[in-house]
Input
Amino acid sequence: MNPRKYFKVYTKFLHTSLASELEYKTNILIDFITAILSLIGSIFLLSIFFQNTGSIGGWNFEQALIIQGIYTILNGITNTWFNPNLTEIVKHIREGTLDFVLLKPIDSQFFISFKKITPSGILEIILGICLLSYCIRINQINFNLSFLSLCLITIFCSICILYSLWFFISTTTIWFVKTWNATEVLRSFLYIGRFPLNSFSFSLRIFFSVFIPIAFITTIPSEVFLGLSQYWKILLEVMVSIVFLITSRKFWLFALRYYSSASS
Amino acid sequence: MISDVINHKIFTLLKVQYSNMLEYRVEIALWAISGIIPFFMLNIWTNNNLNESINISDILLSRYFLCAFFVRQFSVVWVVFSFEEDSLMGKVSPYLIQPLNPFFRYFAQHLAEQITRFPFALIIAFFFFIFNPESIWVPNIGILFLSIISTFLSFLIQFLIQSIVACLCFWTEKASSIERLLFIPTLFLSGLLAPVVSFPDYVKSWIYLTPFPYLIDFPANLLSGNEINVSRGLSMQILWILLLFPVFKQIWSAGTKKYTAMGS
Output
């Protein structure tokens, strides 16, 4: 494990995938517009929910916007890194090109997870950050160093959990070969992350904190922003994300033992 | 004689595509599951008593979202993604030689997929009724018939729109980003996430002139037995089809003239 080598390889990845993405410039422009419209659409939906009520699940409109902002950032990260790379696993396995990946003198999980990048997702991240800074103003949150570091820690943990979930689902392809749509199922579940967890019924809340930990992905970081979160929750999130990362790694190595390359 | 040939063609196409789709049962089941977002939305609506303000009872609302789920299941269109892949891979050239517009092939693919999807949608509806036994209802035959027709018309509208977008592949190679852009208004304005009645007035004033509410909101309201202007809805659907079809024919003939086979 040589970090400098990995860094060097990553810059090469960036270079090649950006070059190939920029071939389709209008595509990127259209994706930008899509990202903006999508944010407008979600805020519109939220405003429908709030048009006759002051709070949903104990969150008022200004506070719910924070969740929206965090969701937008995470969605941008998903679209930039996770989606283009991890849906590729299915292709690797169907076409037998996973063999080439495994033969390379580099960690296979690293190669598979970071090969590609879709630049249009970056706009979503920027939009999310703008929305969040607007929320910080309208919610009168005072900004200091400990607050900032806590926010960054929780958001980083959310990214780790999200990555592990995506990676976990994509890894199952080794057994099922065609699970193209499994990521779609995950995507539709993650959609819930746009809304405060408390606005759902009790059984769904349990489901979304235990099986698919959406509670940890968007709700806890938003609570941190509002200064509502207790320290044990943050600690729990850190622990959950570590467990997720380690499990996804172990699961990948376990799955590779069952990989019997193409045509064998 | 001619009608015999056409019948034979349609029957063969459907049979081939249906057996093709049966191969991928698991994938289609996953597709069906990924469409359950309306149920999550229902949970938010009823759990926060948001429906009181728009005068729809819990039961009617749960029926509405169940119907929205069904309508969505049978009007999902992905022709642009298939066509884009085929045209990038150079598969369109052999299709063009055949004495059959390739879009018939995609059309049969979609119909076959819907037939395969039907049992899975029923299973999901069955589970929905287990959790919400009070919302069980039996629509009468006439309503059922009309709503099947309007669902099919909604499918036709979406199929035509996507086919028009798909034809843009002749010029840009990658047209799916335009489809992703069009999907955003479809998602937020069609009534999949919130019934159109609940929209604020400044949106309601113009939305009925666009095709969006006729994609999901109208058939779902019809099927769930909410009050709705049936003749206006159906005629708007037909009007949109009549508007879109010539556009598709134009763009198709212009596109095939523009088309240069791979390697030329």
Q: What stands out?
A: Chain B touches chain A through 37 residues (CB under 8 Å).
